[in-house]
Design goal:
mainly alpha, MetI-like fold, transmembrane helix, MetI-like, cell membrane, globular, transmembrane, MetI-like_sf
Amino acid sequence: MTLTAQVKKRLVTAALVAPASLWLFVFLVLPFIAIIVFAFGERGPVGGYQPAFTFAQFANLGSRAAAFINTLVLAPIGAAACLLVAYPVAYYLAIKSSPQRRLLLVSLVIVPFWTSLLVRTYAWMYILGARGIPHLLEFVGFDNVRLLNTPGAVLLGIIYGYLPLMIMPIYVSLEKLDRRLLEASADLGAHPVSTFFGVTLPLSLPGVMTGVALVTILLLGEYLIPQLLGGGKVFFIGNALVDLFLQSRNWPFGSAIAVTLVAVVVVVLLVAMRIAWRIAGTRQVDLV
């Protein structure tokens, strides 16, 4: 390839990448830089931001320990619960269902995204509220059962809301699986359970890691589900950020929490990538 051809190729590549790069820089990098600057400032007399350089906001993170603990406990548990529900569904869609039915079933998985998460969460508020399941349980002798405004309600809402995001990466990974490997394992006399753990599961791990990382990262910033199904009793970091920025107007402290949250997300992503690489045997695994 001549020098002129190489220059043209680089110019074309730069032209294709430039719009997305500019968009990310303006709407992601610059706002995050502003958040970092705010994190080292002080709260103004009437709220907002006052220029300063102090680590006091980070030293005060312990005052929101409950939000961090709830998030760091329920987010991984929610991701694990989504995985336990999603893997059998994805396995059936990719391996067991016929090609004629597969498109319909995959469409049914995606259909919930056609409705706002807010509307779906309000529906769960009614189902778990006093006129929902607890009201039905009274007819069989279970009185004073409270489901709404509990960690269990939040966990149920997380599974319902994020299940499609876990199913699809696993489904794509299983759908690409070479069926001849499963046939070869059966021909060699392997039990179906041995085939699953020896062939299917290892080859679908990239999809599993993608789904787990995607759901966990999104849950770390979740606000709506804890707010509606937790009733203010199950506080996530996202709820703390809304309170600090919109109600308390303590922008520096909210920025410090946001920066800490981003650091946690980066750590989670790096750990997930390291585990994926270790399991996959140094093969590249795309997580996002």
